[in-house]
Amino acid sequence: MDIKNIVLTGASRGIGESIAKKLAENGFNVFGFARNIDRLHSLVKNGNGRIFAYQVDVTKPDQIQKAYEEIETIYGPIDVLINNAGIYQGIEFYKQDIDRISQIIDTNLKGTLFCTRLVLPYMIKRKKGRIINISSVSGTRGIPLEVAYGASKHGMIGMADALAQEVKPYGIIITTICPGAVHTPLWFEDTPYHGDINEVMKPEEIAECVFFLLNQSDRTIYKRIILFPRNEWH
Ligand code: NDP
User: Fold this and answer.
1) Marked catalytic residue, from 54, 68, 88, 149
2) What would the pLDDT profile of 73-99 be if each residue is shown by its tens digit?
3) CB contact at 8 A, 29 and 6
4) Is 149 among the catalytic positions?
5) Where would I find the beta strands (DSSP E) of the chain?
6) End-to-end distance of the chain based on CA atoms, in angstroms?
7) Half-sphere exposure of 62 (CA within 13 A, CB side)
């Protein structure tokens, strides 16, 4: 499949930032969604004219729709959607704020559902498209302190499994990437990594994985990729 235009959520830092740089360096147009427009603008400066900033909160369907319409009108078909935006908190579930539970589900799961639901009509009309979801090892098994987060990430896998079958007749391919720990700012907010953060994966490795997927033929389906640092086991 010829790929030109890629929508990437959570592009402003961490894994998303690395994916944006890797894809832009390799000639793709990257439309980065995030809330922090200043961080997005600094990414655009290093994007050789191939990274475009969209201040979009993935929990807000109207903002997603408006951005999609603008991209399709100005730059042409959206070929790929990468659902990467996410938030994390590691905490015993009985101590977790109810509001925080909602934010995690709203961002990680509903954000993915909204971005996917709203891009599908464009892809179905053309009978082609790719969707790559960044879930987590927490979406493949239960990890203590990750109850709400794990539920959101399991949900991403469940939606992809069901949707992949629905959209098969329309030539749309869905892949879920499930990483273990990656060295990003996520671990420097409210939950420090429990081991040595220097031993975990680098965001560039996830970007490599995405780049690899985009270079594969439509004949072969990569349904799920699980990767984690040597010092973790999942
Ligand atoms: P970061 O916290 O470094 O980055 C998260 C990104 O998501 C930011 O760009 C942030 O931008 C964006 N984001 C958060 N909420 C929203 C929202 N409502 N709307 C739009 N964008 C939003 O995390 P990582 O780069 O580490 O994580 C990226 C993805 O990878 C997440 O889904 C995470 O769950 C997953 N993952 C991470 C692992 C890790 O160890 N780091 C391991 C496994 C999976 P802004 O704040 O500007 O909106």
Assistant:
1) 149
2) 999 999 999 999 999 999 999 999 999
3) yes
4) yes
5) 5-9, 29-34, 51-55, 80-83, 129-134, 172-179, 224-227
6) 33
7) 0
Distance 33 CA to ligand 1 centre (A): 11
Domain ranges of the chain: 5-227
CATH superfamily of 5-227: NAD(P)-binding Rossmann-like Domain (3.40.50.720)
The vertex-123 CA angle with 120 and 126, nearest 5°, equals 145
Strand bridging mode 172-179 / 5-9: unpaired
- Of 9, 35, 106, best ligand 1 pocket probe by most atoms within 8 Å of the beta carbon: 35
pLDDT digits 0-9 by tens, 11-23 = 999 999 999 999 9
Q: Report the nearest-CA residue for atom 3 of ligand 1.
A: 14
Q: For the purposes of burial, counting CB atoms within 10 Å of the CB of 28, is it exposed (0-12), middle (13-18) or buried (19 or more)? A: buried
Token duo for residue 102:
């909602």
Average pLDDT in the chain: 97
Does the model's pTM come out above 0.85? Answer: yes
Which atom of ligand 1 is nearest to 83's Cα? 32
